[in-house]
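The instructor's notes for this session suggest beginning with a concrete chain rather than abstract definitions. Hand out the sequence below and ask the class to guess, before any prediction is shown, which regions might be ordered.
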Amino acid sequence: MKIGVPKEIKNHEQRVGLTPTSVRELVANGHQVTVETLAGIGIGADDAAYQAAGASIAPSAAAIFEGSELIVKVKEPQAVERAMLQPGQTLFTYLHLAPDPDQTHDLINSGATCIAYETVTDAHGGLPLLAPMSKVAGRMSIQAAAHALEAPAGGAGLLLGGVPGVAPAKVVVIGGGVVGEHAIEMAVGLGADVTVLDRSLAVLDKLSARFGASLRTIYSTQAALDEYVVDADAVVGAVLVKGARAPKLVTADMVRRMRSGSVLVDVAIDQGGAFETSHATTHAAPTYVVDGVVHYCVANMPGAVPKTSTYALNNSTLPFTLALANKGVRQALSDDPHLRNGLNVTKGQVTEQAVAAAFDLPYVDPADLLDQI
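After discussion, reveal the predicted structure:
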């Protein structure tokens, strides 16, 4: 199969769809891999490293999109990239369609088969291709919060963990999944006063068993959210509904009542955000202030650590990329219902229920379209 890897063009995005190690595996399986020049420079992999792994180097994204059957990326295709997609091509990347009508309609109109990392599932009900970036983003959320709490960044001038004789900052994590657990690990490690809110007692039991008295676990209700968010120095939004827009759990009224210089870090911003006052930002301008509260809402947080993120992502995506290439897209999707759950758009149809519901579009079961791929 002809596999193409374009250079990412989202603001300050330096991850890359395939590492040289992954390229070597694909080439060893008989596939042709073409990588856009300088695509891997952000992870310390120059063109020579990809050539040594067996890849060809293309001079432009246009050459990649024109000559590839399978396109492997990291972030959602930008408008200029979507315009280059062709019927019969397969796109394998993060999509996050539910809050993005323009992208959704462009992918429908492209006729391409679009498989989203974030909705691929596993036998345990997890999201194995979202998990590695959720781990990175969860850990980064506390770094971001700690920096934003500093006075030069607009924060209240608090050290997250305090010092002997001075209380630590109050950190509230909304959602105890992968993002939340890794945020808690970092916040507890730095000595913060940490509370997690979640609606799953099983999740709260697990976190309580792991962190013990270092973590306050609270069942999430409207009253609990109001109480703990308003009194927090830093809040991490770590909620996820597979494929769908994130619920707006923190209202503008709550934000108005928070202390000036408090911080909100919205890790759910890729799916529309968990705070009513959130809008996506970039690494170039990561924060803004509403009612005295600093908001950090970078939509590609792991892009700031591209080497760690790319290798972590490839560890999870490579088996699926190999399956798509070795078996062909139709057979790979037919054989693996978990990979098939990643199919969001194909043949001009929406095959992810949450995306269809978000835009009031017809939903088609992906199994019904396999013969057409």
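Then share the key points. The longest helix spans residues 306-327. The chain has a mean pLDDT of 97.
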